[in-house]
Amino acid sequence: MKSGFPVYDICKFSVSQQQDVIISQLGPYLAALQKLHFPHRHDFYHLVLFTAGGGSHSIDFQNFLVQPFQFYFMAPGQVHSWSFEGEIDGFVINFRADFFKSFLLNPDYLDQFPFLGTQVDHSVIEIPVDSRPVLIDLLNRAVLESENKRRFRVDTIRVMLLQLFLLIGEINTSEKYQTLESSKSTLLKRFEKLIEHNYLELRRPKQYADILCVTPNYLNAVCNDVLGTSAGDIIRNRIVLEAKRKLINLNVTVTEIAYSLNFEDNSYFCKFFKKQTGLSPNSFRSAIH
């Protein structure tokens, strides 16, 4: 474990040091970045499809056993680390958060794909056998396109990535959102998005319910029906997640983390963290060190 907690820009992974998108075979990519197995995060989207190999992969402190034809989707800011076994291969896609900004009329278009969000429950998708040939063909063509110098290369890649997202969206028929009526689906997505942008200031479900123009009871009922947890727990889980992300950095004290998360004092933060996780902040640090 490093004492400093790195946040990498896409330029670190780019030969030209200025790319907005990188698409590559996974084997050569990992060979060039062997030192990145320890926990870190990116300020860009990081997508990985495994076609060979094994081991484990952690996203925001949830562990997954790596298996062929698992597709991992990591949003900017998520913490991840890996420990691979055997000869790893597949594909990797990195793109900046604003890569589609000038391309899509609707700035929220990508929000309809839960796997591009920050909820780890949506981050890993198994690719069924009958979908693999189409997916591999698309990714191989995207790799080739990324290597050429044609005039419309970047826009062609954007189109290919949108094809990929639509394909994954069709594959991922088990999404909880797909069983919802559209009004509840929209409400839940808006609630999760509001939390992502406001969890440091807004801590109570009523504050979010007021913004969403629903009653706190209705918001809570939707969360319980779909996610099996209360609206309050969803907010608290997001605060705990950010605390865990910050606790990885041994150069920052627990007191500094408490204040950065808008807790009035260190004692209250420690009680809150232990109630939610069963561990004190220092115990959590020791467990992941």
Notes on the protein architecture:
The chain is of the alpha+beta class. It folds into two domains: 7-174, Regulatory protein AraC (Jelly Rolls); 180-288, Homeodomain-like (Arc Repressor Mutant, subunit A, Orthogonal Bundle). The protein has helices at 26-31, 132-147, 153-171, 182-198, 205-212, 216-227, 231-247, 254-260, 266-277, 281-288, and strands spanning 7-8, 21-25, 40-42, 44-59, 62-65, 70-74, 79-96, 124-126. Strands 1, 2, 3, 4, 5, 6, 7 and 8 form an eight-stranded mixed beta sheet that branches. Strand 4 and strand 5 form a beta hairpin. Helix 2 packs antiparallel against helix 3, helix 5 (205-212) crosses helix 6 and helix 8 crosses helix 9. The longest helix is centred in the middle third of the chain and has 19 residues, at 153-171. The model has no long low-confidence stretch (mean pLDDT 87). Keywords: DNA-binding, Transcription, Transcription regulation. One of its GO terms (molecular function) is sequence-specific DNA binding. Pfam families: AraC_binding (PF02311), HTH_18 (PF12833).
